[in-house]
Fold this sequence. Notes:
Layout: E1 7-12, H1 26-35, E2 38-46, H2 57-61, H3 66-86, E3 92-98, H4 105-116, E4 120-123, E5 127-128, E6 131-132, H5 137-147, H6 150-168, E7 172-173, H7 186-190, H8 193-209, E8 212-216, H9 230-238, E9 242-246, H10 259-268
Parallel strand pairs: 1-2, 2-3, 3-4, 4-7, 7-8, 8-9
Antiparallel strand pairs: 5-6
Amino acid sequence: MSTPISKVSVHGGHSGQYCLHARDTLDQVVQAYIAEGYSWVGITEHMPPLDDSRRYPDEAEQGVSAAQLKAQFSAYFAEVRQLQARYADRIRLFAAFETETYHGSAAFVRELIDETRPDYIVGSVHHVGGIGIDVNRELYEEARAWAGSLEQLYCRYFDLQLAMMQELKPSVIGHFDLIRIFDEDYLDTLALPSVWSRVERNLGFIAEQGFVLDFNLRGFDKALEQYPSLPVLKLALQLGIAIVPGDDSHGVASVGRNYQRGVALLQSLGHDCRWQLPLLFPWARSP
C-alpha cells in the first residue's frame, strides 16, 4: 500500500494584505491551506524595497513608500507568528520571506533577518541590472538591452543568483530559472554553452550546500512549464538536490493550484515525493 503524498508548499502564502499584486487576507490564505489538507507551508512574503527607487511599478503607482512597505513587512511577521500559534494544531506554518537581489540588497536582507528572525528565507532573483525581469515584457526587453543580448541576460541572471546564494546562504532557492519568463525559445537559450555551464555551476553549488530547490508551480499559470524547466529539473534530480513544491500562491484561488500536475511530473521522473523540510535558522529549530 503506497504512502499518501503529503501536500506542502516551501514558497507560498502571498496575500493582498501584504502584497499589492496578490489578493485576500493572510488569514484567509492560511485557512485555504488548511482546507486543502496541507501538512506544512512556508509563508514567504516579498521583502520590502531598500528605498523608493527599488519599489515595484504597482507600489510606485499607488504612492506607497519604501518606509510604509517596511512597516507593512513588520506587521506581516507579527501576524504570521499569531497565525502559527492559532493554527498550530491544524497545520505547521513557517514564517519566512523572499529576497530580492540588486545592489545593496544583501546587507538589507541581513538587517531584516536580524529584525524579524524568520524561520528561513527564499533566495530569489527578480532583477538584472536593477531592472525587474518578471514584471512585464517591456522591462524584460529593457534588461535584455542593458545586458547586450538575450544570452548575456541569462548569464548575468545566473551570475547574480550564484553571488546571492554564496552571500546569503538561503535554504530555499526560488524559481531557479525565472529568467526565461518572456523567452518563448528558452530551451534553446538554456542550451547555449555559456548559459548551461552556469546552470550546472549553480546547481552544483545548491547540491553542495544542501539547499532546497523550489519546484514552483506558478509557471503553469503563465502558459509555461513549472520552474525549474524540465532539463534543469532532470539535472537537479541527478545531483540529488531536494526538490519541494512551492505553489507561490497569491491569494485563496491559487492555493494548491497545479499541485497534482506537478506531483505527476515529479513521479514520472522518479521522485519519491517525500518532501524535505528547509534548513531552519538556529533560533527556529526545535530544542
